[in-house]
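Teaching assistant here, posting this on the class forum so everyone can see the example we discussed in section. The complex has four components, and the goal was to see what a joint structure prediction looks like when all of them are supplied at once.
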Amino acid sequence: MSVALHPAPFDPWRTLGEFEAGGGAPPGKFGATAAFVGTMRDFNEGDDVRAMFLDHYPGMTEKHLEAIRAEAMERWPLDAALIHHRVGNVEPGDPIVLVAVWSAHRAAAFEACRFIMEDLKSRAPFWKKETLVEGERWVEKNT
Amino acid sequence: MSVALHPAPFDPWRTLGEFEAGGGAPPGKFGATAAFVGTMRDFNEGDDVRAMFLDHYPGMTEKHLEAIRAEAMERWPLDAALIHHRVGNVEPGDPIVLVAVWSAHRAAAFEACRFIMEDLKSRAPFWKKETLVEGERWVEKNT
Amino acid sequence: MLDSSAMVYVKFFASLREQLGTGELQLPLRPGMRVEDVWNSAAGQPLPEHMLMARNQEYVQADAEVRDGDEVAFFPPVTGG
Amino acid sequence: MLDSSAMVYVKFFASLREQLGTGELQLPLRPGMRVEDVWNSAAGQPLPEHMLMARNQEYVQADAEVRDGDEVAFFPPVTGG
C-alpha cells in the first residue's frame, strides 16, 4: 500500500521490508532509498505530553497524501514512493508518519522524501490534540 | 552497533528495528529519524553489472566512518547515528550502505543523514570492482 | 426561487468542531453562494483569517463558488506528520 | 647513518594494488623522509595527481613527514556507498 492511514500502532521498518518484499520497488533498478519516520515525543512546547489524538478528514486526507505522492513521482525520477500515517490515539514513542522513496540515485531520493514530508507537515489534513499532565490542547501550528 | 562493516548480506530495515529495540535511540526523546539505504543496481555506466567486489582499508575505513559519525553528532543535535556498510562480494539487489540518524526534529535528521552520505561517498575508503557480462573494471569515481 | 432540494453539506474539524459543538450540518444552497457565505450561514461568527477551507475535499479560497450537493469543510491550520 | 631498524610499512589498495602487483611492502626509513619519498621508493612511477594518501590511517598530503614504524597507504579515489 503506497498510501495508508493506520488507526493502530504500526512498525515503519517492518512496513518497508514488507513493501520491498512485496515488489513495491523494482529490485536491481533502484539504487537509493530515503526514508523518514516521525515519532511522537513525550514532550512538546515545554510540557510533558501523555497521549495524543490525531484527527483527520476522512476522504480528503487520503486524497491529499495520494496527490503529494503523485506530485513527487512526477517531479523526480522515482521508482516508488510510500506515505503511511497514524490516526486516532497515539502514545509517546509511537511512530506517527513514514515517508519513503526509491530511485536510481540519492539526490532525487533525499529531495523527494524531504518534499513529501514538508508538504505533509504544512498541508495534509491532520490535527493533533495533546493530553498533558493537566488538561488537553490542540497543537496550534506545525514548525 | 553504530558503525559496522558487513562481509555478508544484511537487512537494513531489520537492522534499524533491532537498533531501536536495543535502546540505540532514546524512546520518547527522538521525534525524527532519517535513513538512507544504497542498494547495488544491476546496471552502471551503460553496462549490465553481474556482481561487485567491495574493497576497503581494514582499520582506516572503520576509523573514518566513526569520525564522520562523530562529526555529525557534533554538528547537529542528534540522539543517535548509525552507519553500516557492506564489504566483499555483493550481488545486484543487495543493500550496500545504511545511514540512519535520530533527532528531536526533522531538519537536523535530514541534514545530518545527507552529510554522512555525502562524506562517505567522497572520502570513506571503499572501492568497487564490477563484474560485467565480459570482464571486470574498477569504478573510477563516485558521482 | 429557492431550489428547495439544493443542499450544501458542511463539515468542521479539530478545534473548530469543538468550538462550534458540531462536525457536520446541511444548509440550503442559495444562488451565487460562495464558500464564505456558507461559513457565515453555518458558523455565526466572522471567518477567522487563518481558517482553511475545502470544497469537495480540495483546498479552495473563500470566494469559491458552491453548487448543489457540494461538501464544504472548514478547519484550522494542519499539524500532522 | 641509516638507522637500520627504522622501517616504514607501505600499503596499496584497489586498482593500484593490482597494477603494482602487491598490497604491502616495507622499506627502510630515511631521515627527513616524506610520504612522497615513500611513494618514489616503493612504486617506481611518478605519483599520479589523483592518488590519495594516508599516514597511520588518516588522510595526509604528499609532503607529510614519515617516522619510524609509520603505516603509509596509497589508493585511488574512493567509490563506496
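For the discussion questions: The first strand of chain A starts at residue 3 and ends at 6. Chain A is about 30% helix and 40% strand. Think about how each of these relates to the inputs above.
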